Amino acid sequence: MPPLAVSGRLAEETIRRLFLLFEGPMAGLLRALDAICGFGAVIAALGCAILAAMLIVEVITTSFFAYSQPWAVEYSGYLLAAALFAGSGWSLGQGAHIRVALLLELLGARAFRFADLTVSVFALSIAAYVSFALAGNAARSLELGSVSYYPSATPIWIPQAVLAFGWIVLCLGLVARIIRLISGRPSEQPAGHSVR
To answer: What are the pLDDT digits (tens) for 137-151?
Structure first.
């Protein structure tokens, strides 16, 4: 066996043993991360439900009463962003994100896990950057007292903070995925699972 392969397996085994030392706290951390991602999914589901109800009311008022709600366009955009991003961490844990299956099928189990870990770390770096930028933008809008240009004059930091929250939840979902990949746990969890 080549020396590089031996050192790679040794490093992998060392990391797994370290994770075994912290099995209890690691399981607790994963439960907490999964709970936060689940909360994000609830926010996303509520955003979808409110968006659907609001659009139904808009169609009825426009069709039968020739009246359009002046806030419908504005808040539908905010709710769409909440629905798209707040549930992304939970979706990641359920395996619902898009993948290039053709490439992944060509890899063996070890290569697949390594590729998954590499891509997850790369995705975490991008998501962390976006989260930081969005949170900074929301804080700046709060500091400046910025409001939307729509008639409702909504304080714009509120929808920006919800968007930042969604990206932060995605970061936490990626952290949980990375921990699972490194510790040898399944990276995707079926709905209603419990962390072991």
So the answer is: 999 999 999 998 888
